[in-house]
Amino acid sequence: MHVPDGFIDAPVSVAAGVVAVAGVGVALRGARRELDDRTAPLAGLTAAFVFAAQMFNFPVASGTSGHLLGGALAAILVGPYTGVLCVSVVLLMQALLFADGGLTALGVNVSVMALVTVLVGYGTFRSLLRVLPRTRASVAGSSFAAAVISVPASAAAFTLIYAVGGTTDVSIGKVATAMIGVHVLIGIGEALITAVTVSSVLAVRPDLVHGARGLIKPLELRTTKPQPGSAGGAGGPAEPSRA
């Protein structure tokens, strides 16, 4: 979904840039409450994963491209504010190092692929968890729904921006059909990846999944202590104790 230079006119690009700067500024302040010694390394790994996933893209219409976005995954794992920063840094690096998305369109790309995906994805995720049971299956299912909704929502946001400031001769109908239609399919694939990734982290370190904190209790290791008369000693039956 990277937007190239010149695809959106200057006034709309500037307006999107203002929105992107404001959103990243808010995210910088909010990330201070989300990051600590445990979650900071996970944020780096998440950004690296999103970077790698977004490098696999394919053309959609008139210079735009389709690929995994990762906003919902980042928000669920490390928090919405940190998630915005992760995706924004990825987009900046791709524009500077690989010319993937124009520098003049960076505001559009950050607004569409970082802000919209995180807001829609994390909002969907938290809304579902309010009504679903407090289980790992609920977290995985909510993660799936968050990703599958956030990706076409991002494509719809781009379509609206194109309707206001698009500079090509392609009709808004064709752009909407191409972008939203393709990204519905991409959303399904991204949803599977998101659900599997979140479930995997939950299985080993549920405390690291920001979106599930307070919902899922960490696993408890129980051991048995030999009692007098038991098989391992001389006593009655062993009783479980917390490690």
What would you say about this model in short?
The protein has 243 residues and is mainly alpha-helical.
**Number of strand segments:** 4
Q: In percent terms, what proportion of residues is strand? A: under 5%
Instruction: Compute the number of structural domains.
Output: 1
Q: With helices defined by DSSP (H or I, 4 residues minimum), what is the helix count?
A: 7
Mean pLDDT: 85
Can you put this structure into words, describing what you see?
- The chain is mainly α.
- The chain has one domain (about 10-210): Arp2/3 complex 21 kDa subunit ARPC3 (Orthogonal Bundle).
- The chain has seven helices and four strands; from the N terminus they run ααββαααααββ.
- The chain has helices at about 10-35, 40-55, 70-80, 80-100, 105-130, 135-165, 170-205, and strands spanning about 60, 65, 220-225, 240.
- Strands 1-2 form a two-stranded antiparallel ribbon. The chain has a two-stranded antiparallel sheet with strand order 3-4.
- α5 packs antiparallel against α6 and α6 runs antiparallel to α7 (about 170-205).
- The chain is globular, with a radius of gyration of 22 Å.
- The chain starts with 9 loop residues before the first helix and ends with a strand.
- The relative contact order is 0.15.
- The model has no long low-confidence stretch (mean pLDDT about 85).
